[in-house]
Amino acid sequence: MVFPVIIPAITAAVSTITTAVAAIGPAVSSFVTSIGPTLSTIALKIKPYAEALANFSNNFLQALNIFKPGELVTDFGERALQGLTQGVHLSDYASVSDYLAALRKVKIDPDVSATRTFAEKLGAGLAVSTVALEDKFNAPEGQFNSIWLLPLANASYFTPERMQSLITSGTLGSSISEYLNKTLTGGESRTFEKALEKNEQGEPITTEQRSELYEALESAQDKWAEISKQVEQN
User: Fold this and answer.
1) Which candidate, 211, 33, 221, 28, places its Cα nearest to that of 127?
2) What distance in Å separates the CA atoms of residue 59 and residue 207, rounded to the nearest whole number?
3) 228 with 6: CB under 8 angstroms?
4) Would you say the C-alpha torsion 31, 32, 35, 39 has a positive or negative sign?
5) Per-residue pLDDT tens for 120-175?
6) What's the superkingdom here (predicted)?
7) What gap in Å lies between CA 222 and CA 195, rounded to an integer?
8) What are the pLDDT digits (tens) for 63-89?
9) Residues with Cβ within 8 Å of residue 120, at least 6 apart in sequence
10) How far is CA 63 from CA 76, 129, 168, 192, 199, in A?
């Protein structure tokens, strides 16, 4: 899905990024067509948010053992893009884990890397990481495309540790963007919220935790509206 509130028109720069990321393979097409333009626009226009998201992603993906200690999402993005010219294609590997292992062996050309923007590296890295998450948790294609919006909208609540708990408990669905944009119906919003009222063991959270959750969600919606305005004004 495209986000018309945030992106009234896809700029040439965003188009360049999404086209480059799409070349990684069909497995990332859902990410590219749904959340890719949004994240690319934010990365280009409000870099501090993108840098914060990159830091979140590094910690989050390391905690889930998708990345090894010290590995960076932007580095994987660069490796995925340079890997295309070295015969490393996602579709050629039996598993995403095998593909990530191959990316770790890609020889990086620093001159090529220097010509690539941070936004492009981040977009490619998040695309590959999203596919890796889907593979790890046997999730349908596209289910985790929008999870990256939550730490953007409320970093203090949706920390790497809390996001790890939410994704492990199976409570994160594919309606995050619609929820933040307030385009869900009342019933759909309630269903989305209720799904988050569980801990990592799948048990109901406490009354205090529920209150904290709903305050965090309201704050996230407000912050997302603010980010949207910032993107439009830049």
Assistant:
1) 28
2) 29
3) yes
4) positive
5) 999 999 999 999 999 999 999 999 999 999 999 999 999 999 999 999 888 887 79
6) Bacteria
7) 21
8) 999 999 999 999 999 999 999 999 999
9) 16, 17, 20, 21, 40, 77, 81
10) 16, 13, 11, 25, 17
Cβ-based neighbour number of residue 218 at 10 Å: 11
Residue 233: both structure tokens together: 């004004």
Structure-token pair, residue 120: 């492009």
Q: Which residues contact 42 (CB under 8 A, 6 or more apart)?
A: 6, 49, 50, 53, 152, 227, 231
The string of DSSP letters for the chain reads: ---TTT-SS--HHHHHHHHHHHTT-GGGHHHHHHTHHHHHHHHHH-HHHHHHHHHHHHHHHHHTTSSPTT--HHHHHHHHHHHGGGT--GGGSSSHHHHHHHHTTPPP-HHHHHTS-HHHHHHHHHHHHHHHHHHHTTPPTTTTTTTTHHHHH-TTTS-HHHHHHHHHTT---S-HHHHHTT-S-HHHHHHHHHHTSB-TTSPBPPHHHHHHHHHHHHHHHHHHHHHHHHHHH-
Name the pTM for this structure.
0.92
**In this structure, what token pair is assigned to residue 99?**
């593909």
Query: Rounded CA gap, 145 and 126, in Å?
Result: 9
Cβ distance 177 to 144 under 8 Å? no
